[in-house]
Amino acid sequence: MAVKINPTRMELKRVRERLKTAVRGHKLLKDKSEEMIRQFTILIRKNKKLREEIESELSAALKSFMLAGSLTDSKTLEQAISLPAVKYEIIGGKKSIMNVMVPKIEVIKTGDENIFPYSFAGITGELNTSVQSITNLLPKLIELAEVEKSCNMLADEIQKNKRRVNALEYFMIPQMEETIKYIVMKLDENDRANLIRLMKVKELIEKRESRGRS
Amino acid sequence: MTKYDSIAVIGKSHDILGFKAAGLNVFAVSEGKEARSTLMRIADRGFAVIFITEDIADELKETLQRYKTKTYPAIIPIPTAKGSSGVGIKGIMQDADKVIGADILFRQ
Lengths: 214, 108
Description:
The complex is a heterodimer.
Chain A: H1 9-71, H2 74-81, E1 87-97, E2 100-110, H3 125-213
Antiparallel strand pairs in A: 1-2
Helix pairs in contact in A: 1-3
Chain B: E1 6-11, H1 13-21, E2 25-28, H2 32-43, E3 47-53, H3 54-59, H4 61-67, E4 74-78, H5 87-100
């Protein structure tokens, strides 16, 4: 046993109390872990689906933008896109999943997407459509950001929680049980020693008394 | 408290032009070191989401790790016009692996 403790009744009571708390905590943490993993599996599936969708759609949109952009000279292009018609406002809130604070993002689009800030003389129609398709993808991108971040944070928290559960299950609780066993054994031993001592003393007294009488 | 109310995009200038047209804040960088300093500079400036192109994200793995446990900013790798290099999907796989210890998503 690693820790030196006094084999007293006081100590025994204290350790028993601690063990009770530890067992309770272990059960709670294990339940928490289970629920977090359940939530995580739902989220990560969603994350994967979203990412696969976005990756193909976004690279297609960017590709068409690049192709369309290559038809225009870079100065005109730069000018055309430097004043976007749409602006995004974001409200970054927080949501709690099993006490893990994950982001909750709301997007508010301001500006009119039907007003183009560039003249069509310099810009091709393809460019216009590709910008449009990137714009249309944005809400999905934000959703991906939200889900992916939640997954990241949950994964981290689950791992931390797992470590706590394991520390309790494989270290703290066995150690306390051993301590209790040690104290109980010591106390019993003392008890027996005491009993034997009493018996011996009684024997001695009886012997002396019988000798006196005879 | 910082208000998180905008979106940023970090990447090579030709990759992120499209996002500029869509009305996001773009930060053009040319290589990993520059991207790192840019990212660190803008990370606390109230961007709720920072999209970062996969080629740059791949170079900044350690830096990204630092922001993983914070609620904001959410730093998300995105593909470029060349298509996805798999960095984003790999991130998801790593998360799943961390939690469950097994591949639950891509098992056939």
